[in-house]
Design goal:
With 180 residues, this protein is α+β, with helices and mostly antiparallel strands. The protein has helices at 2-21, 47-55, 154-179; strands at 24-31, 34-43, 75-77, 84-88, 94-104, 108-112, 122-134, 137-149.
Length: 180
């Protein structure tokens, strides 16, 4: 009888544990001139470990489909002011996905960044990763604020960017989960 109760308790707890690891993404503001996206996830590692995992080898968690060359292994991130979130391309080319403007290990990483198709628009983006301690590990908050002269519907574009960044943060959470 006791074993049956343990199995039932485990079955109830399993979806709750999974739900805690799923990135929760939201477009918190969107207008024709810009948008703000906030995506949050809880991870089972400390803020310091999560920060290191984010900055050391983005290829471990960034989706290759969201690179210019199709290979996340060519991504690097130099986590210091002025550092580059860069991608090396075939033939010697390169792409800057962002420039670090604030780095506080274990606390915050902030980049000036117009990701993907936003690069060809006259927009400015600020991509921030905040890390807060929790009893179980860390709470990671990705905030992306973009403003400027959009060449397409910014409100519709915000939904696509929200989806992509939510998936990226989920990949990150899965990656750091394997590290633990």
């Amino acid at each position: 009888m006791r074993q049956g109760r343990l199995i039932i308790a485990a079955l109830i707890a399993l979806p709750l544990a999974f739900a805690a690891a799923v990135a929760q993404a939201t477009v918190v503001a969107a207008a024709e001139t810009g948008f703000t996206i906030v995506t949050e996830v809880d991870v089972t590692v400390s803020p310091a470990v999560a920060y290191r995992a984010l900055t050391q080898g983005p290829a471990n968690w960034w989706d290759s489909e969201h690179t210019f060359g199709g290979d996340a292994a060519r991504l690097t991130l130099d986590p210091r002011a002025g550092g580059c979130f860069c991608e090396q391309m075939d033939g010697g080319g390169s792409v800057s996905h962002g420039t670090v403007i604030y780095a506080d290990p274990g606390q915050m990483l902030r980049l000036s960044s117009a990701l993907g198709p936003l690069q060809q628009m006259a927009v400015t983006g600020v991509l921030s990763f905040g890390f807060a301690p929790r009893p179980f590990g860390a709470h990671v908050t990705l905030t992306y604020r973009v403003y400027g002269g959009f060449t397409t519907d910014a409100v519709e574009l915000s939904k696509l960017v929200d989806s992509v960044l939510g998936a990226q943060l989920q990949r990150f959470a899965t990656h750091v989960g394997r590290k633990e």
